[in-house]
Amino acid sequence: MFVCLGNICRSPTAHGVFRSRVEQRGLAHLIEIDSAGTAGYHIGNPPDHRAVATARQRGYDLSDLRARQAISADFDHYDYIIAMDKENLSELKSICPPHFKGYLGLFLDLAELDVCEVPDPYYGGPAGFDHVLDLVEAASEALLDRIDKELN
């Protein structure tokens, strides 16, 4: 599960990109994907129109996604709880049950990149959404490679 603050920019972008990669590898029947926010600002809303447009330009569909808030029960359902930045990781740690044995960490820590956080593009221009997509595509490949190894 991918998590950012409001669940309308970064985490739905990661959700859509990762879903596409999973489908391309024929693993959709084995991997469940979701996204959520640490705050409830946008519950029920679709992703930001700029995130949707930028993703669509690269062939990703985010139109079916709706924002929701992460809850402690998510830790009982998902093996990977992935934060986009350190602030959201801290929020997730505060609701993580002590028995959780999965991966709780930063998305970009899974890829060999020069940055560790996916920046929030909300208050910036179109280039920020493209940059987020670049980072998410790289990290999605790394995450899927890791999960694929675990499955085999």
Q: What does the secondary structure layout of this molecule look like, with pairings?
A:
Blueprint: E1 2-4, H1 10-24, E2 35-37, H2 49-57, H3 74-77, E3 80-83, H4 86-95, E4 103-106, H5 126-151
Parallel strand pairs: 1-2, 1-3, 3-4
Oligomer designation: single chain
Q: Helical region count?
A: 5
Biggest pleated sheet: 4 strands, parallel
Strand order of the largest sheet: 2-1-3-4
Q: Which blocks of ≥5 consecutive residues have pLDDT under 50?
A: none
What's the architecture, going by CATH?
3-Layer(aba) Sandwich
Rg on CA atoms, Å: 14 Å
What best-fitting shape do the alpha-carbon axes yield?
globular
Order of helices and strands: EHEHHEHEH
CATH class: Alpha Beta
Name the beta content range: 5-15%
Structure description:
The protein is of the alpha/beta class. The chain has a single domain, classed as Response regulator (Rossmann fold), CATH 3.40.50. Helices cover 42% and strands 9% of the residues. It contains 5 helices and 4 strands; from the N terminus they run βαβααβαβα. The chain has helices spanning 10-24, 49-57, 74-77, 86-95, 126-151; strands at residues 2-4, 35-37, 80-83, 103-106. It has a 4-stranded parallel β-sheet with strand order 2-1-3-4. Helix 4 links the parallel strand 3 (80-83) and strand 4 (103-106). The mean pLDDT is 97.
For the structure shown, list the relevant keywords.
Rossmann fold; 4 strands; 152 residues; single chain; alpha/beta
In short:
The longest helix is centred in the C-terminal third of the chain and has 26 residues, at 126-151.
